[in-house]
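USER: Please consider what follows.
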Amino acid sequence: MRSRRQFLGEASCAAIGSTSILSTLLNLTMANHAAAASGFSGQRKALVCLFLSGGCDTFNILIPRDSPGGYDEYAASRSNLAIPRNQLLPLNYTDAQGRQYGLNPACTRLAEMFNGLGGDTSKKRLSFLANVGTLIEPIPDKQAYLNGNVALPKALFSHRDQIEQWQTSVPQGMSVLSGWGGRAADVIHSTLNTEQTGGYYMPMNFSLSGNNAFQIGRSEGQFVITPGGALAITGTGGQSAIQQAKEQALKDVVASPIEEHYQSLFQRTHGRITANSIERGAQFQQSFDAIGTTLASVFAAAGFPNHWLSQQFQAAIKTIVIRDQLKLARQTIFIEFGGWDHHSELLNTQRGMLLTLDAVLYAYQKSLEALGLANDVITFTASDFGRTLRSNGQGTDHAWSGNQFVFGGPVQGGTVKGNFPSLAIDGPDDIGRGGRIFPKLAADQYYCELLRWFGVSNGNMDQVLPNIRNFYDPASATNPVGFLI
């Protein structure tokens, strides 16, 4: 039989042994700073980031279909990787240059979300942002890049660096890492999540994909969860006598003064963090479990495919639905879907992944619509980088700019924003080495528009996006891109 002291030590070690749990514990060191303002009475909002890690070849997702014109340029540069024009799913949109677009044939439901859910053109939920990437300052033209007259992001074409830069939006690098979602939480968690009073604290950033740079702030962090809910201390939550003994001992820790158990300041601090984590985790889990049965019929009607990604997005919906119980007026949720680094084979592998993504996102949006949450949630994509236009045989290699998409009720759906580039090899937008397109729309502009909707004030925008004034004046009356209603 373990003594109480032995168990407490074991529980602490178990927590430290898990990176994600440690992250959650560290997040909760920031507890007790919540504002003591009056209750929240406005609209609750959530930003959901879907990170397509690996560097998604988005020039084979959003494809020009006007011919003669954009499609012919696309077909020439992509050669054996080009999707036949008659297989493209038409998007009912023509841009100012007269360009028309189509989607990869694996994206039937995304096309419906673009053109109008269920054929209803009043429900255009999805838009694309063309030619977007990491930038420190605008690049006026290809020659400016070649002359070296502009500051460039560090380590272009590197997975690790570009993932970090998409999540921090500081491509020149940082001495202390923080992400733009975390910095947004720094400035709005205490001012907008004002229902958290009386010492109650629940973080606003939730990750379903472990630790990430996006949600790390200077004072705020991320609360790592799983499709089953909150992370638990190893060995608790079961029915055996030992597990129940651990459970009871943990509850005793929460219920009694930490000073009774620990002598040193470090031990007391660590014990207090552990107790806070257990308490927040238990509160989250209770609400999360309670809503599961209610949502089961909604998820079944939406038609989620049998895939782990479905479980991730269902958990995201549950986390949004229980926002009242969590006393959260603002939430961010991070989901990573990896495997897009298609050097050796693009067409078949990407098609399989797109079929999954297409089905999951459609069911997810249908669920939000059914629950009356469509106007409260914006979901957006990001990826390491775009890929070379030229085929390396069967796949493509690391490049720079690409296309992203954003969807939800607040989105001005059915549009392609930004300047879709020339896809000609060695053309005006290709900086070389097989069709590497340079961005004309900065990730900062993309994020700034999302943050304005989310509630970050113009005065705080520089703190969240330090480079934003290189592209856009936060005090402007108009949005930086124009993809939101």
In short: The longest strand covers residues 45-52. Residues 1-19, 21-39 have pLDDT under 50 and may be disordered. The chain has 14 helices and 13 strands. Residues 14 and 234 are 6 Å apart (CA to CA).
